[in-house]
Design goal:
By secondary structure, the protein is of the alpha+beta class. It is 46% helix and 28% strand. The model has no long low-confidence stretch (mean pLDDT 97).
């Protein structure tokens, strides 16, 4: 295995994943604000799961997204 190439492939995937995920979250929040499902001060629970076929990796990640800074 070429470690340098593999590392670049991982970085490309994570960059694409991050940018795509961020855009999707932003759009979903905008839509929810527009429709009134969100008011704008909420903290949203967020969960992602990274899976890699062939090696049995399943990595759940949990967090929170604050729509406004805490006072």
């Amino acid at each position: 295995m070429n470690e340098d190439h593999f590392n670049l492939e991982i970085r490309k995937f994570l960059k694409t994943f991050g940018v795509t995920s961020q855009r999707a979250i932003e759009q979903a929040v905008r839509d929810a604000l527009k429709s009134g499902r969100l008011k704008g001060g909420e903290t949203l629970k967020v969960r992602g799961v990274l899976e890699v076929d062939g090696v049995g990796l399943k990595l759940p990640l949990d967090g929170a997204l604050e729509l406004e800074p805490k006072k």
